[in-house]
């Protein structure tokens, strides 16, 4: 507490000095500086109020002899009064100064002075035009009656000026000078969250004028973005797209905000990730290629920084689902070639990947898988042509459409035929992108062997959990498997449990045997969640498998 | 219903007193009671917003009272003038008391406690009195800041925010008067004319005549569903009043810019006839100065040739029906003057020549 109040005292000095410099925020510099400090100052006011409300007015004047001066200066700064809740907190602070039982004329004088300030806040800035006041009063209106209407009309008039500016920028007669647009955007900084200002914010964002350089003030973009992220305002997607295109730091902040939300929410099911994702408007905004490229670039960094964390992979996948959905909705007015979204990938590969499995008959999925696998392999193994990036770039492109890898694993288990080379390669590449060709071949051999053993079990009349574990090679402790390949095999096994007729009965036992560690338990849960989510998207009819997956998932979530 | 109306009457009295030195006799309990009444009326406003009959009855009473209190008299004071005002009567009362220096210390302290109870008060923050007062402060700052940095007078009269707002208020009041008073709003307009600066008033009248018919009312003035739409109302009364008061009509046509008048005339044919009539009178007062070769006013306060020409020029730029009417009128006056085609004989011939339409 003592430390707290010491902190408050030093803040107090700082803000007192600031307020003196700012004065009534009538110059460009003071406005700029005021805007920069608005949130901090509001926080200070809040702390001040928390301190003041515990004291009686005499103690207040003892502890902070110049508090009246500080609050009075605040009352004269329109930027502060316009910002968020500052005017309210200021009023509360002023109320704390009122002496409940004034004992002498000094006390009364102070009370009266404080009242004056309060009434100034609520009726400040009367129009300097007497005739307007006389006219409205003659009609029986008080300023409080017509201020909202006046503000609305002022906003509308500016909006129509901006629109006109946007449409005929070269018509110099009614042109809004860039300087005026700029200063208008500055004035809006504290006011973006006031509902009356919504049309103006919208017009500023969407009307470009014809200047080669950005005329709006960067802090304006920052304030709008912040208000949007904190859900203090709602703007149409088109306006948000304009915001992010015009101000890159805002887009980056929106991405970071999404990451923060995902990280802070403890366990993310894909449904929840999807909600966050759609809520962020990023997939919709990404229909504009410039935004897509930046968002994608940030995903790439996240993937590299986390060494391919499964959570990031899942997020990229969900993003891609949502993005493609948004793109589909926009299809009619699709202005950009697919190449603009994935400039470094081979166009024919992108075309295959972009096809929604739902739009392809299930019987033809193996063909798509083969096609994807061959295209990727061509790129990955082609050492000469560096134009499409190395294996990482290929893999990064493929993980956007990670659903195909899951389909590959599922398809493998659903057919008793010899697994096609292409599918084996695709799985090996998808789970272990960093392997060299020799290691990859080894993985393919291993997967093929496991597949063979599992298919044999399919026909065995009495299936046991131990058999299954043996088939997966789990019990051969002599040759500990590299973990990622282990993951692939675990996924094959889980698919087997979900699809094989005898699998359901022993599923729980097998999972108990498999889940040695929390990490693996978590991995199994993620697999089930992802599978259910994919089935939903593909509208797969598999009631028994679905029921089992849902039950297993619920049980595992209860454990971790 | 009668008790509600009495309640209303009593509160109007309280509101009237709240700006006088009488509040020095108020104690904390009085302040509390006054605010309670205001809360009750706000509740009435919310509750009966959709009951056209009750609304109407309340509004009639409010109008009557406002007139009785001298609302339209020389010492007009804002008060409760319409049903919508009930929705913000607590804000109005609070502001008056806060600004009234006569309110005693104890009463004032109680007032502040009730207005600003501090954070954590239940209820939707936006809708509490505290929240609404804070929003008012915020909006006021916003208006101030826009006026400092962004807004400027619009070259189009009815698009200028200040003019438009005043025009909307005027039309709203005219609509209420039209509904409530049998005599119509002429009395209100004439009494305003006596009390407010004329230039601003005339501009507001013009803006009101030019506002698009569907112009939304000021916020808070919207009629809830269930009440008859009265979009066009107010303007015919204005036109009638102007035509009935030749002195004001003359001032209207003389003092407003030519462009504004041409737009008004284009929208209101009755006014365009009155305007043309005045232009004829003014034109007939001009005499031709042979030595200078120009038309000059016979009287110093008459309308000079340049101005007359400017006004006709604006009218001739108007869309067809008006433009044609004006040219036809000029032609007929020229014919009355003998139809000469020589300069200096008839002001109408010269005007037509100057306008490039002389035949």
User: SS-based structural class of chain A?
Assistant: mainly alpha
Strand percentage of chain A: under 5%
Q: Please count the helical segments of chain A.
A: 29
Ranges of chain A where pLDDT stays below 50 over 5 or more residues in a row are none
3D shape of chain B? elongated
Q: Which structural class fits the helix and strand makeup of chain B?
A: mainly alpha
Q: Summarize the amount of helix of chain A as a percent range.
A: over 70%
Identify the most extensive interface between protein chains.
A-B, 67 and 70 residues
Rg of chain A (CA only)? 32 Å
How many individual β-strands of chain B? Answer: 2
Distance between the termini of chain A: 40 Å
Subunit structure (chain A): Belongs to the multisubunit FA complex composed of FANCA, FANCB, FANCC, FANCE, FANCF, FANCG, FANCL/PHF9 and FANCM. This complex may also include HSP70.
Pfam families (chain A): Fanconi_C
Keywords (chain A): Cytoplasm, DNA damage, DNA repair, Nucleus
Subcellular location (chain A): Nucleus
Concise structural overview:
The complex is a heterodimer of chains A (560) and B (359). With 560 residues, chain A is an all-alpha fold.
Structure description:
Chain B: This is Fanconi anemia group F protein. Chain B: InterPro entries: FANCF, FANCF_C_sf. The complex is a heterodimer of chains A (560) and B (359). With 560 residues, chain A is mainly α. Chain A contains 29 helices and no strands. In chain A, helix 4 (67-75) packs antiparallel against helix 6 and helix 22 (403-414) crosses helix 26 (483-499). The longest helix of chain A has 25 residues, at 28-52. With 359 residues, chain B is mostly helical. Helix content of chain B is 64%, strand content 2%. Chain B contains 17 helices and 2 strands. Chain B has helices spanning 2-17, 28-48, 52-68, 83-86, 89-99, 105-115, 129-150, 161-180, 186-195, 198-210, 235-244, 246-255, 258-267, 269-284, 305-316, 320-336, 347-354, and strands at 286-289, 294-297. In chain B, helix 13 (258-267) crosses helix 15 and helix 14 (269-284) packs parallel to helix 16 (320-336). Chain B is elongated and about 85 Å long. Chains A and B meet through helix 5, helix 6, helix 7, helix 8 and helix 9 of A and helix 5, helix 6, helix 7, helix 8 and helix 10 of B.
């Amino acid at each position: 507490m003592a430390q707290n109040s010491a902190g408050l005292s030093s803040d107090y000095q700082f803000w007192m000095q600031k307020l003196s410099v700012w004065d009534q925020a009538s110059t460009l510099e003071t406005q700029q500086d005021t805007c920069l400090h608005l949130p901090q100052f509001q926080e200070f006011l809040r702390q001040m109020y928390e301190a003041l409300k515990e004291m009686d007015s005499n103690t207040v004047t003892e502890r902070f002899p110049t508090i009246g001066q500080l609050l009075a200066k605040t009352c004269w700064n329109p930027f502060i009064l316009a910002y968020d809740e500052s005017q309210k907190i200021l009023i509360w602070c002023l109320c704390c100064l009122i002496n409940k039982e004034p004992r002498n004329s000094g006390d009364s004088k102070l009370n009266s002075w404080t009242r004056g300030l309060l009434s100034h806040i609520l009726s400040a800035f009367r129009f300097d035009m007497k005739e307007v006041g006389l006219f409205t009063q003659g009609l029986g209106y008080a300023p409080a009656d017509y201020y909202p209407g006046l503000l609305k009309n002022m906003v509308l008039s500016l909006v129509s000026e901006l629109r006109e500016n946007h449409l005929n920028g070269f018509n110099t007669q009614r042109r809004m000078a860039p300087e005026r647009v700029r200063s208008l955007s500055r004035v809006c900084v504290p006011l973006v969250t006031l509902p009356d200002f919504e049309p103006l914010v919208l017009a500023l964002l969407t009307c470009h004028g014809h200047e080669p350089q950005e005329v709006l003030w960067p802090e304006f973009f920052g304030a709008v973005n912040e208000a949007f992220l904190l859900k203090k305002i709602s703007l149409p997607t088109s306006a948000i797209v304009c915001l992010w295109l015009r101000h890159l730091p805002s887009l980056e902040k929106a991405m970071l905000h999404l990451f923060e939300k995902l990280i802070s929410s403890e366990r993310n099911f894909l449904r929840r990730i999807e909600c966050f994702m759609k809520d962020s408007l990023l997939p919709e905004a990404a229909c504009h290629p410039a935004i897509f490229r930046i968002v994608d670039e940030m995903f790439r960094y996240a993937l590299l920084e986390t060494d391919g964390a499964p959570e990031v992979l899942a997020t990229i996948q969900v993003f891609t689902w949502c993005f493609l959905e948004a793109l589909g909705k926009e299809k009619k007015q699709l202005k950009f070639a697919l190449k603009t979204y994935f400039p470094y990938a081979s166009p024919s590969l992108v075309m295959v990947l972009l096809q929604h499995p739902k739009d392809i008959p299930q019987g033809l999925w193996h063909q798509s898988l083969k096609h994807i696998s061959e295209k990727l392999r061509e790129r990955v193994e082609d050492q000469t042509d560096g134009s499409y990036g190395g294996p990482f770039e290929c893999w990064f492109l493929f993980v956007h459409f990670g659903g195909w890898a899951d389909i590959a694993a599922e398809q493998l288990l659903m057919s008793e035929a010899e697994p096609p080379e292409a599918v084996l390669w695709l799985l090996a590449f998808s789970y272990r992108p960093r392997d060299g060709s020799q290691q990859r071949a080894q993985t393919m051999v291993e997967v093929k062997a496991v597949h063979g053993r599992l298919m044999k079990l399919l026909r065995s009349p009495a299936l046991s959990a131990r058999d299954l574990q043996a088939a997966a090679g789990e019990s051969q402790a002599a040759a500990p498997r590299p973990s990622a390949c282990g993951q692939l095999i675990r996924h094959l096994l889980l698919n087997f449990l979900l699809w094989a007729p005898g699998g359901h009965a022993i599923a729980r036992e097998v999972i108990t045997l498999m889940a040695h560690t929390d990490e693996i338990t978590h991995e199994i849960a993620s697999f089930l969640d992802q599978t259910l989510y994919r089935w939903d998207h593909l509208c797969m009819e598999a009631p028994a498998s679905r029921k089992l997956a849902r039950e297993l998932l619920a049980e595992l979530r209860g454990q971790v | 219903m009668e008790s509600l109306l009495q309640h209303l009457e009593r509160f109007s009295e309280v509101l009237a007193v709240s700006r006088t030195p009488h509040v020095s006799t108020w104690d904390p309990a009085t302040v509390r009671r006054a605010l309670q009444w205001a809360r009750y009326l706000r509740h009435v406003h919310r509750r009966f917003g959709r009951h056209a009959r009750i609304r109407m009855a309340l509004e009639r009473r409010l109008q009557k009272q406002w007139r009785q209190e001298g609302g339209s008299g020389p010492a007009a004071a804002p008060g409760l003038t319409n049903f919508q005002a009930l929705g913000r009567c607590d804000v109005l009362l609070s502001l008056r008391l806060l600004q009234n220096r006569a309110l005693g210390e104890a009463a004032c302290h109680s007032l502040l406690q009730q207005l600003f109870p501090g954070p954590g008060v239940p209820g939707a923050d936006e809708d509490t009195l505290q929240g609404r007062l804070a929003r008012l402060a915020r909006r006021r700052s916003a208006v101030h800041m826009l006026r400092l940095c962004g807004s400027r007078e619009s070259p189009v009269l009815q698009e200028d925010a200040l003019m438009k707002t005043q025009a909307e208020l005027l039309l709203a009041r005219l609509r209420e008067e039209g509904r409530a008073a049998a005599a119509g709003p002429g009395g209100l307009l004439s009494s305003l004319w006596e009390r407010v600066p004329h230039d601003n008033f005339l501009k507001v009248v013009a803006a009101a005549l030019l506002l698009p018919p569907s112009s939304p009312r000021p916020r808070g003035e919207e009629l809830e569903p269930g009440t008859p739409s009265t979009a066009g109302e107010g303007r015919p009364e204005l036109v009638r009043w102007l035509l009935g008061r030749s002195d004001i009509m003359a001032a209207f046509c003389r003092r407003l810019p030519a462009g504004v008048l041409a737009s008004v005339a284009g929208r209101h044919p009755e006014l365009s006839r009155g305007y043309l009539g005045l232009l004829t009178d003014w034109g007939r007062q001009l005499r031709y100065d042979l030595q200078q070769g120009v038309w000059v006013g016979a009287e110093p306060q008459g309308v000079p040739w340049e101005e007359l020409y400017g006004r006709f020029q604006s009218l001739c730029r108007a869309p067809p029906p008006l433009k044609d009417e004006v040219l036809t009128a000029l032609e007929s006056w020229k014919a009355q003057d003998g139809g000469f085609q020589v300069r200096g004989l008839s002001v109408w011939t010269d005007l037509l020549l100057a306008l490039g339409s002389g035949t």
